[in-house]
Write a structure and sequence with these properties.
It contains two helices and five strands. By secondary structure, the protein is of the alpha+beta class. The chain has a five-stranded antiparallel beta sheet with strand order 2-1-5-4-3.
Length: 130
């Protein structure tokens, strides 16, 4: 959607809504120069949307643009791929734990199995020739 500085729609996917006020109550920051992502209940339903100001050649804000995805259209994607993401996350945790155990084993072997508090000075016994 595209709106002017008064938040009046200049473009909308439903032609009958052109000329009406934008809904969602999250357009103000864009009219002050911010670019952001918000979640709000708009004229098409609950959506996640990005908003940004529109500037003219003199760098004055002359409106805003709002582009988003309806929550109902995102839910099937999240539901379809949610288990895959969970399994991938668990796999990454498992690989991290195994890597940490392997690295600690290698370090312990490199220092002959001693822990930092077990580094005792070796007693050197030599024969005296006195």
């Amino acid at each position: 959607m595209i709106g002017d500085t008064q938040q009046i729609r200049l473009y909308h996917p439903i032609r009958e809504r052109i000329g009406q006020r934008m809904t969602g109550e999250d357009s103000e920051p864009a009219l002050f120069g911010e670019r952001y992502i918000s979640t709000a209940l708009g004229s098409l339903g609950l959506s996640i949307r990005g908003k940004a100001p529109i500037y003219n050649e003199q760098q004055d804000i002359v409106g805003l643009v709002s582009v988003g995805f309806l929550k109902v259209s995102l839910e099937p994607l999240i539901n379809d791929h949610g288990m895959q993401l969970l399994l991938l996350g668990l796999l990454l945790v498992a690989v991290s734990v195994l890597s940490a155990v392997w690295i600690s084993h290698r370090v312990r072997n490199a220092i002959f199995g001693l822990q930092p508090d077990q580094n005792r000075p070796l007693i050197c016994r030599t024969r005296s020739h006195f």
